[in-house]
Every structure is written in structure tokens, then in C-alpha cells.
Amino acid sequence: MTSSLKMTREEMITFLQQEFPQYVGEVCEVEDQYSLLRLPINDSHLRPGGTVSGPTLMALADVALYVAILSKIGPVALAVTTDFTIHFLNKPRADRAIMAKASLLKLGKRLVIGEVNLYSEGEAESVAHVVATYSIPPR
């Protein structure tokens, strides 16, 4: 089976460091069907009550989907989020990294719709589910 990837994991990391240095998470995998990012959790990610904050989960999910999209369309820095819906499902573990697995539902010429499953590393249960849309600038 041939891959339709336009960017490898290494190319993606270099691109993010150059074009989007404030990105969160470690790019673990860039595959044909998904991208996988990992975010080690520390005290700066926690909200009162000792749980991982919503903004932390949202940022990781957004970057994971950005990686999944760029892996298919190439290095288009100006691809932007136009819609983002997150459902918080379970309390994330504060003592484990958060994993974000992103996949594409529809890859159009101007819009891309994808989803992200977030979970605590080593756990099967999702902590959040995201569906988001990105706008791709005309070439």
C-alpha cells in the first residue's frame, strides 16, 4: 500500500519549530490514517482540583489535527481552525501524559474536517473528543 503522506514526522517537527514554535506536544507518529501527539503533564497544565485544564486539552487537540492535515496537504502554514467542538468525557490523570490521536473525516480543497481522541497515556478510556474544521487557503 502506498502512502499519501506529504510530510514525514521529521519534516513535520522541523516545520512546526520554524513556523509555529509555540506548539504544544511531542509529535510521536505521523501515519497515513492518523497523527499521534503526546504532552507530558506538569503543574502548569493543571487547574484547581488537580485536573488537566480544558485549554491544555484544546491546544493539544488543535495541534494534533493541524499535524494530521499538513501530513496530507504539505506545509501550508496558513491553514487555520474555523470550527472547534470539544466534549469533555472523563477526568484526565494528572500523573500521566495526555495523548491526542487525530484523523481526518473529510479532506476537501478548501475545508478539512477531522476528529481527535484524547486520553491519558496507558489508559483506554477517552478523556475528551474533538471535531474541528480547518480552512485551507487557496493555492
From TrEMBL:
InterPro entries: HotDog_dom_sf, Thioestr_dom. Residues 49-125 form the Thioesterase domain. It comes from the Bacteria. GO terms for molecular function: thiolester hydrolase activity. This is Uncharacterized domain 1-containing protein. It comes from Marinospirillum alkaliphilum DSM 21637.
